[in-house]
Write a structure and sequence with these properties.
The chain has helices spanning 12-18, 20-27, 36-42, 62-72, 158-170, 179-196, 211-219, 225-233, 238-248; strands spanning 32-35, 53-57, 75-77, 103-107, 124-129, 143-144, 153-156. The protein is of the alpha/beta class and 249 residues long. It has a 7-stranded mixed sheet with strand order 3-4-5-2-1-7-6. Helix 5 packs antiparallel against helix 6. The radius of gyration is 18 Å and the shape is globular.
Length: 249
């Protein structure tokens, strides 16, 4: 049975520990947008697990953001390859990353029994350039703050989150289909729609969308509406939608 939440399933202590890298950016006067599972969990109350912390910054701040985190917390640039973000070898033997334009940091000192809170530390941090994620960290109309955290630490609104994920699905920054990236995005779209759109059925007997779902559809960027409409009606045709989006662009 589906259970809805009206607050995050993660307490303030966990959030504070998870967002220490974001606080490091705020202290360095670098504005960031928290993305992926942490945004889903803290702002949109999705009861998801937490994995790598994903932060989006202005493109010109990518290097400075990485440096700020490494200077204040025990992280280093990752030299390994994480299978969770690599393409399946059967699809591409070179196994490219889902985020080729991003910086990945990894812990230098994994959790210690002497520091129980370290269990909440992100094992990896992805720092993404905002141009590759179809969002703007400086747009307060499409981002939210989370008290008591700094106003420089932002989270995507539901509309901005959908727009970003749909655009990445249809027009990947890498210019190619990536099965791991697509799978993650589809899961997050499903989580966001399932836990924030509570009126069912989404499609009424007369074929119209339920008003709450229709309102979200109309709030999206025009080029992303065909995908969302098809997603709700379960008639998604990836190739057709992607080609249509490219023609509109």
């Amino acid at each position: 049975m589906l259970h809805y939440y009206d607050s995050s399933t993660y307490g303030l202590e966990t959030q504070q520990r998870r967002l220490r890298p974001a606080l490091s950016l705020s202290d360095a006067n670098i504005r960031c947008l928290v993305w992926a599972e942490d945004a889903l969990a803290y702002i949109h109350f999705v009861p998801t697990g937490l994995f790598a912390l994903q932060l989006i910054v202005a493109d010109q701040n990518l290097e400075a953001a990485s440096t700020a985190i490494m200077q204040s917390l025990p992280y280093k640039v990752s030299t390994g390859r994480d299978k969770h973000f690599m393409e399946a070898i059967i699809l591409d033997p070179s196994q490219p990353s889902a985020f080729p334009h991003s910086v990945c940091l990894e812990e230098t000192t994994p959790g210690s029994v002497d520091d129980p809170g370290s269990i909440d530390d992100p094992y990896k941090i992805f720092i993404h350039p905002m141009s590759q994620f179809y969002c703007d960290v400086h747009d307060n109309s499409r981002t939210l703050s989370l008290p008591p955290f700094s106003d420089n630490i932002r989270f995507p609104t539901r509309t901005a989150f959908f727009d970003s994920m749909i655009a990445m699905n249809l027009d990947p920054p890498s210019g190619r289909f990536h099965s791991k990236e697509t799978s993650m995005l589809q899961n997050w779209i499903a989580y966001l729609s399932t836990y924030t759109l509570r009126k069912r059925p989404a499609v009424l007997s007369n074929g119209d969308l339920e008003p709450e779902w229709k309102e979200v559809l109309q709030s999206l960027r025009e080029e992303n509406r065909p995908y969302f409409n098809a997603y709700v009606r379960r008639t998604v045709n990836w190739k057709e939608l992607a080609l249509g989006r490219k023609k509109e662009a």
